[in-house]
Aminopeptidase FrvX (Zobellia uliginosa), 362 residues
Amino acid sequence: MATKKILTKKSLDFFEKYLNNAAPTGYEWEGQKLWMDYLKPYVDTFITDTYGTAVGVINPDAKFKVVIEGHSDEISWYVNYITDNGLLYVIRNGGSDHQIAPSKWVNIHTKNGMVKGVFGWPAIHTRDKGKETPPKLDNIFIDIGAKDKEEVEKMGVHVGCVITYPDEFQILNGDKFVCRAIDNRAGGFMVAEVARLLHENKKKLPFGLYITNAVQEEIGLRGAEMITQTIKPNVAIITDVCHDTTTPMIDKKTQGHTEIGAGPVISYAPAVQNKLRERILETAEANKIPFQRMAASRATGTDTDAFAYSNGGVASALISLPLRYMHTTVEMVHKDDVENVIRLIYETLLNIKDGETFSYFD
Ligand SMILES: [Zn+2]
């Protein structure tokens, strides 16, 4: 299993389709439907909740419950203010990056479908070279080709419409996946691949497995906070992205050293249950899966925190996929890392026994 390739043509086709579909925070359901369609042959049943979190369940009657989780939402913008001459000012829905906005195409989601627009920017000729103004939330604006506010409204665009980038999946140099929203479409994809492998390799787990695709992570782990109360799991293994810190202008002394192509990144943080993390590390070593380490002070900033600090404490751990250029439209990951995260979650599940408490006192 350690050397066998995991991703198939079919799984990559799904990943591409799943990435190319927009699923802004709060509006995840079309993406969830694609994900559930793909996952369906590999699970016994589904749970969905009011805000759109989706969970594929294997062994739904088992008392002991293990979650593997990624998040389904992507960062976006909201239309916040429309000027009399028909330009749109925005606020963030998640950690959208004002610095990359100028000159980007956008899709504005309306009741009648997508309206195209562009983030405009003053021409280099017209700017004061002595004091360049960087893009900020209060000076970036969208032009949808409308002459005034009335025309904007006629186009179906109003305050509260969400805005995403149209950038689609590409492969660079054969093994780098590039797209917007790989944070954290990759997570949902990887946990679904774990379910596929369990099914194809006819592995029977002694516990209930809850393959979870949570909503609303980007605005504060909200989907995970909701679904952990519904599932009430005993164990949660979370996967999200983390930074490749080897590209320019990132300080390794504060950000640590993690990079794409060097394997899954295992987190050390108070929310990470030590015995569960050690089980993951032992599994990586036993199966010759490369890995890297990362430390977080206080919170991990991922859904790990939401699962860990729920239901009286849930043994939780975080396996991250290293990624370049987070929250830009050209997020980049290494194919080998995607496969190794899948492999590590899969092998770890095979190493968890029914009823394990991971107690420090046994
Ligand atoms: Zn993010």
About this structure: DSSP finds nine helices and 17 strands in the chain. The first strand starts at residue 45 and ends at 48. The chain has a mean pLDDT of 97.
